[in-house]
Amino acid sequence: MTERPAQRTPNRQLAALIAEAGFSNAGLARRVDQLGLEHGLDLRYDKTSVTRWLRGQQPRGTTPALIAEVFTRRLGRRLTAQDLGLDACAPVYAGLEFAATPEEAVDIISGLWRKDSGSHAELRKIAFTPAGLVVPSRDWLIGRADDKVARGEPLARVPAQGRPGVPRQRGAAERGPGQKVTGGDIAALRSVGELFRSLDDMYGGGHARQALVRYLEHECEPMLRGTYGEQTGRRLFAAAADLTRLAGWTSYDIAAHGLAQRYFVQALRLAQAAGDRAYGSYVLVTMSRQAVYLGHGREAVQLARVAQQGVGTNAPPVVQALLHAVEARGHGVLGEVRACTASLVRAERALETARPGDEVPYWARFFDEAQLADEFGHCHRDLQQFRSAAQHAERSLQLRAPSYARSRLFCRVVLASARLGLGELDQACALGAEAAGQAAEMRSVRAVEYVRDFERRLEPYKDAAPVRGYRDKVAAIG
């Protein structure tokens, strides 16, 4: 006698959500396939697949998480696979969620660190998704502060680093989950951040990105899973947010755009756990910059405005200037001359009100006259206002310190493009060749892409002597 297959229970949760979203079975399948493509997956679901899910069949692999993401985007609230009556798994897109709790945030980000540090090449191929910016930025803006981040000890207990005679924990290689986090641990995280930031500025994100991710996995994760009081915990989450944003920034620089996006979303959540609203705005600025680079001007403007709304008008003038300049870049990409100019004027006025004694967060100190001139140069280039672009790019190069090597390279390419737009072919090619030589010394896909963009602009002049000379110089660089 043959054994009958076990009776499946119809999935009423999924049926109710399909009705609420107004999807047809074929419509849901199509959206899951499209989302899969965003994450490098070739899925072939159809209306029959959805009928099977409704009858109680469990989709395999990462599909439950993708289905949950489709509903999250449609309904504007975060839904998990369990909410849909599906088995959860580790989704390939994990990291776009804005976690409900600090504990969940630690689980998500440590999962990303582990996967990335294990050299999972597919993780670096995940596509950037503009739609994935909406829910996290909204959740950050309207989300309530976390009441508690302390772990494993009463809130009133005095942290170890505040008591004389308590020895520091020894190396993190000996650290196990549950060990006490000290002020020295957090100071070490901050120092590491400064080191990796300077390496990135000088040599490009590919130079030490993998080492940073391994550091996060082996040193930072055990701290987040250690024991700490409320005050130490907030400082720990702040340091973890900063390093995670930097991991995203270096990933962005090597064109791992989907991975970078996930790091930025998680840095935003860690900043919320830290109770650091201003740093959250800086993460949104970073996300806006990536959107500008990828040509998503509308999303870039929205992210900049959410950042402005999130910090309000009490932020230091330098921070205000940064937020307005980043919005201007979004308008520039969209060709919106009036809106771009208005944002640049606001940025300039804000920076003019800054005073030497102002309290400026460490992450905003780079934003000075050189950086503002750089933003002006980029915007005017995008708006094809080449004379202004050249003036501002030259000013930025005069003011900018040599340690910002990659930023100087970008600015030099902007100047080269502006000179080309003004018909000054010799100067344009000389500047372009200099930038190409510098790009060859870096591990930065963005640097290479800036040079390639300039070369595309040279195409109409390809037979001119200066362009042939440029090509010879670049060929010699190899």
TrEMBL record:
Region described as Disordered: spans on this chain: 157-183
Domain of life: Bacteria
Protein name: Regulatory protein
